[in-house]
Design goal:
Chain A: Pfam families: Ald_Xan_dh_C, MoCoBD_1, MoCoBD_2. The complex is a heterodimer of chains A (797) and B (297). Chain A has 797 residues and is an alpha+beta fold. Chain A is built from 19 helices and 33 strands. In chain A, the strands form nine sheets. Chain A has a seven-stranded mixed β-sheet with strand order 3-7-1-14-11-12-13, sandwiched between helices. Chain A has a six-stranded mixed β-sheet with strand order 9-18-17-16-10-33. Among the domains of chain B are: 49 residues, Uridine Diphospho-n-acetylenolpyruvylglucosamine Reductase, domain 2; 115 residues, Enolase-like, domain 1, CATH 3.30.390. Classes of the chains: A alpha+beta (797), B alpha+beta (297).
Chain lengths: 797, 297
């Protein structure tokens, strides 16, 4: 039977009464209506008088030596202002990268993947720039392509990167292995001897694209001091800045960056895209330069989710307790490192899921290949592992004759459990409870397509394509649960910075919040305003545009921004509050003894005592003065994983979600309709319940996408991308999106601001395996790969 | 790229005669995609949107003369009784926005094997009304219209004025397989029409051969089986073995390829399933059973 849920821990708001528009309320997003009505200004809408248009020439082959590049015909085209190749780069720093600087700004001597930038053109019209790029003559001498583990590590294999000097190189067994992380705890081999049942499986995870709405774009404006101002859609302004400035040969204070309207990210904007090339072209021509990718180029312009091969062995005793897990996770990192090492760390450390297993033997690694570079995407290594370990859990449950939910609950981790890394989970981990909740939700009615008018095809697999009126349709139900870390791990100094000012404007107290946090659609600016209202007792909050005039906010990724930049805003607000009270004491302290003796709060524009007595209006306190504080804020430090054993307190916080998928499969045609995807997730504290719901539903749909349709297909012989368009890379439409009932738990993590838990990624993990489990239940097929296509369900692959 | 905007049909024909490489554009749902992807850079675009008669249709005794630019949304709404197969096909086209722009003329002009209208036109029986300034109007039977992958029987100086589609004299069905529930290019598609007046069954297959095709051997088999068994008169249930054989022959008519949207093996398999199901639905409807299911708009 499921354990009863941990007791809910009420979350204390730090100061004052519940503020109107404060935390816990579903205040509406300032960008919502603009986006729905098409009026929001995205980075692709940037415009500047006299601006030029940049365009990148990309390689047509995956792996080749560049014999020669001839730009003369491109330069001769009227309207062309500059053509840059590697030889035109202004300094010795000609590569960039998030962790390992292995990515050329423009290809040098070699291209390592299909679509790698080779030259950059600026012209007075985007069409002219494209035509000029087409006139650049590049002679390639093709090299053998490395496409998977066997070709990467074969004797005599071509090295994707020769002469590696990165800090992982000394520890890998082959130079085409970028990074490898074992995690060993207990003795899995010995524990296997105690197992009554052992199941094994090999799993394949396809390459998923972030498929964000707004293609890569930005505008670089040269400035009078020789610097440049870049308006850009990114996930982390300061990380971009750190990579851009040295290539330009400029100090960081001469590269100013302002966040432009971001049309989604999901990890795909952690790496640079056109930032450096736009700046180079602007500095070269002395004119503003805008670059906008079209959708085709966008598929080559950002990293994707790592495709993976995963091999698992699970054992259990007859009474349904896991004995051991052995697994090997091979991630295809593609041609450049991007975030691969950190993805490896996640895949390894979260490789067995939210279960108690004392004896584990895990190995995760990322390959260098000539496939498209892969890096960050929502779920970040934990997604691939969850797909595999949850399939294994179902297999084991079946072998043991146990209900799959009950089997998971028997092995579910909880607060106080120890992970394979040796880290003890020191905040709520309601894994069994989340499973109980999704299982307890009412089931959607059977045969919803039946009506008095005949079959309503919209309720059937195939939808309006009218492929079945009920023939061949079988329902299946599947469950899955996952574990995701929150924040940057493995010893990274994961801080954020907030600047908060309080002043009086038109007789009213106003809080001004300035951070460099990239609002990519997650709703961070909404949450910052809520925090400021709660902490400062004001109604009016101004959120300044994100730019590099304030310190780094860290990345909008890893489910971390509400935790870390939210924490920084809260901290700065608290410091501002103290200063405001100091001013109050100075100005009015003699009028009332409570100024000196009581605990003072800011509520509804006033200073009040904890007993509720009003001492002064904030407008009076701040008249003629303002308070401003900028501070960095850090969560608890983490540690690197030991290179050999993987032991270490590597993660900040964990986030859990569970799904129940109900699908209907046309078993003859292999078409799947996901009828419902119920989710239960612990969010610690929902600062904005509506945004939390949006995150959970969005993550759920992104997981559904890679379960049944989303995959970048790469030709195994040429390593070229076969479907770089939304015509052939399919993402779910609203007709593919099921009902998503959500049950939100709020069990506070006392280490985190307001007890909150990062929300954005966990639902992406368990959604995919839940759908796969349901399809397996409907079809009886093993289905060891995702996405599952009609061919796999009909024996016609 | 020059943009020609004729104000009348005659002007359009003259422009096409003068610029035979001009690409006609109406809804733009195919042409603009090709231009945006840089797959095509025509010297001239011939805009047909000012020619009102292309968006009109006339319903005659035996056929509907459907203007080349009548949008799919209007076919769905107004021609369900006369052209049920095409109306069903129109339902499966892309999204509401695209169905408001795109029309059958564009599908025929592009002549992609994946065009959604083709199987319905083949099954219903249709003639393409092509016209040139020099030679006037000619009617091209749709069976001979598709001449290769994205090639058709039009001469360089011809434009599609309309399609003449036989009015339904019996139940029609249309099914399309895509890997999501909307906004999807066909992996394969199947159209079927019962013609009680001629006691024939016609079919159309999309995306499973270099061109849209009919499954002629399957049609002949079924026509004989229905005739010999007196099924048209009796309205009896067709024996499962006959339905199965029809499905097998439809699958055998395919000549598909493996591509990013599906394997050849899957396409052949799926056409067999669709042939069986659409025949059952249409025949059930013919027998006076329940209504044809068309789904909601």
């Amino acid at each position: 039977m499921p354990a009863s849920g941990p007791a809910g821990v009420p979350t204390k708001i730090t100061q004052g009464a519940q503020a109107a528009g404060g935390i816990g309320e579903s205040t509406l997003r300032p960008d919502g209506i603009l986006k729905v009505t098409g009026e929001f200004a995205y980075s692709s809408d940037l415009w500047h008088e006299d601006m030029l248009w940049g365009h990148l020439l990309r390689s047509t082959v995956a792996h080749a030596e560049i014999v020669s590049i001839d730009v003369s015909e491109a330069l001769a085209l009227p309207g062309v202002h500059a053509v840059l190749t590697y030889d035109d780069l202004p300094t010795g720093v000609r590569t960039y990268g998030l962790e390992i600087q292995d990515t050329p700004v423009l290809a040098h001597g070699k291209v390592r993947h299909h679509g790698e930038p080779v030259a950059a053109v600026a012209a007075d019209h985007p069409e002219t720039a494209r035509r000029a790029a087409a006139r650049i003559r590049v002679e390639y001498r093709e090299l053998p392509v490395i496409t998977d583990e066997s070709s990467a590590t074969a004797p005599g294999a071509v090295l994707v990167h020769e002469g590696r000097t990165d800090h992982y190189a000394p520890y890998v067994t082959h130079p085409n292995i970028l990074h490898r992380q074992p995690i060993v705890r207990g003795d899995a081999a010995a524990a296997a001897g105690r197992a009554d049942v052992i199941v094994r499986g090999e799993y394949t995870f396809g390459m998923q694209d972030q498929a964000f709405l707004g293609p890569e774009s930005g505008l670089a404006v040269p400035e009078e001091d020789g610097g440049v101002h870049l308006y850009i859609a990114t996930q982390w302004l300061h990380s971009d800045l750190r990579q851009i400035a040295p290539v330009l040969g400029l100090p960081e204070d001469k590269v100013r960056m302002t966040l432009a309207g971001v049309g989604g990210a999901f990890g795909g904007r952690e790496d640079l895209s056109m930032q450096i090339q736009a700046c180079l072209l602007a500095l070269r021509t002395g004119r503003p330069v805008k670059i906008v990718y079209d959708r085709f180029e966008s598929f080559f312009g950002h990293v994707h989710r790592h495709p993976a091969k995963l091999t698992y062995e699970h054992g259990a005793t007859r009474d349904g307790l896991l004995t051991h897990v052995k697994c090997r996770i091979v991630l295809d990192g593609g041609a450049y490192a991007s975030a691969s090492p950190a993805v490896v760390g996640n895949a390894a450390s979260l490789g067995i899921g939210p279960y108690n297993v004392g004896d584990v033997d895990i190995e995760a690694l990322a390959l260098y290949t000539n496939n498209p570079p892969c890096g960050a995407m929502r779920g970040f290594g934990a997604v691939q592992a969850c797909f595999a370990y949850e399939a294994q859990m179902d297999k084991l449950a079946k072998e043991l004759g146990l209900d799959p939910v009950e089997f998971r609950q028997r092995n579910a981790m909880e607060q106080g459990s120890t992970l394979p890394t040796g880290q003890v989970v020191d905040s709520p981990a309601p894994v069994a409870e989340l499973l109980r909740r999704v299982k307890a939700m009412p089931m959607p009615p059977e045969r919803q397509w039946e009506s008095s008018e005949g079959a309503d095809v919209r309720q059937l697999p195939g939808g309006l394509c009218n492929t079945t009126h009920g023939e061949g349709v079988v329902r299946g139900v599947g469950y899955a649960v996952g574990i995701k870390n929150v924040g940057f791990s493995e010893g990274f100094d994961d801080y954020s910075t907030a600047r908060v000012r309080m002043e009086v404007v038109a007789g009213e107290p106003v809080a001004v919040v300035h951070t460099a946090m990239a609002e990519v659609g997650q709703g961070g600016v909404t949450v910052h305003a809520q925090i400021a209202r709660t902490e400062l007792g004001v109604e009016k909050v101004t959120i300044q545009p994100a730019d590099t005039r304030v310190g780094s906010a860290g990345s909008t990724s890893a489910s971390r921004q509400t935790y870390v930049t939210g924490g920084a805003v809260r901290n700065a607000c608290a410091l501002v509050r103290e200063k405001v009270l100091e001013i109050g004491r100075r100005k009015f302290g003699t009028y009332h003894p409570a100024w000196a003796t009581a605990e003072l709060l800011l509520e509804r524009g006033k200073v009040v005592t904890d007993g509720g007595e009003v001492l002064a209006g904030l407008a009076d306190v701040l008249e003629g003065e303002s308070v401003e504080i900028e501070r960095e804020w850090r969560h608890r430090p983490t540690q690197p994983f030991d290179r050999l054993t993987g032991q270490g307190n590597g993660h900040v916080q964990y986030s859990f979600a569970a799904h129940r998928a109900v699908v209907e499969v046309d078993t003859e045609l292999g078409l799947v309709k996901v009828v419902e995807l119920a989710c239960a997730q612990d969010v610690g504290k929902a600062l904005n319940p509506l945004s939390v719901l949006g995150q959970i539903q969005g993550g759920t749909v992104q997981g559904l996408g890679v379960a049944v349709m989303e995959e970048i297909l790469v030709d195994p012989v040429t390593a070229k991308v076969r479907n770089p368009s939304f015509t052939d890379y399919l993402i779910p439409t609203i007709l593919d999106t099921p009902t998503i009932p959500v049950d939100v738990l709020e069990l506070a993590d006392h280490h985190a601001p307001y007890g909150l838990r990062g929300v954005g990624e966990a639902p992406t993990l368990s959604s995919t395996p839940a759908v796969l489990a349901a399809v397996r239940a409907a079809t009886g097929l093993e289905l060891n790969r995702t996405p599952v296509r009609p061919e796999h369900l009909t024996g016609t692959a | 790229m020059e943009f020609l905007r004729p104000a009348s049909w005659q002007e359009a024909l003259a422009a096409k005669a003068e610029h035979p490489t001009a690409v006609p554009i109406a809804g733009g749902t195919d042409v603009m995609v090709e231009i945006n992807f840089d797959h095509r850079r025509p010297t001239h675009l011939l805009d047909l949107t000012r020619i009102g008669e292309l968006t009109e249709w006339e319903t005659g005794t035996d056929s509907v003369r459907l203007g080349a630019s009548v949008p799919y949304a209007r076919i769905m709404r107004h021609l369900r009784a006369e052209l049920p197969g095409l109306a069903l096909a129109a339902h499966t086209v892309a999204s509401p926005q695209i169905r408001n722009r795109g029309g059958v003329g564009g599908n025929l002009g592009t002549a992609s094997p994946a065009g959604d209208a083709h199987p319905a036109l083949l099954a219903a029986g249709a003639e393409v009304e092509a016209e040139s300034a020099a030679r006037g109007t000619r009617l091209i039977p749709v069976d001979t219209f598709y001449t290769g992958v994205k090639r058709n029987a039009l001469e360089p100086d011809e434009l599609i004025r309309a399609v003449r589609i036989a009015r339904a004299d019996g139940p029609q069905q249309y099914s399309k397989v895509g890997t999501r529930n909307a906004m999807v290019i066909a992996v394969c598609a199947f159209g079927l029409a019962l013609h009680p007046e001629t006691r024939t069954v016609r079919t159309g297959i999309g995306s499973a051969a270099p061109t849209p095709i009919r499954a002629e051997v399957a049609e002949q088999f079924l026509n004989s089986a229905l005739e010999e068994g007196g099924f048209w008169e009796s309205g009896q249930i067709i024996a499962p073995s006959a339905v199965k054989q029809f499905a097998t022959l439809c699958a055998a008519a395919c000549n598909p390829i493996d591509d990013v949207r599906g394997t050849a093996g899957y396409r052949r398999h799926a056409i067999g399933v669709l042939a069986r199901r659409t025949l059952m639905w249409a025949w059930e409807s013919y027998r006076g059973g329940h209504r044809v299911t068309e789904g909601a708009a």
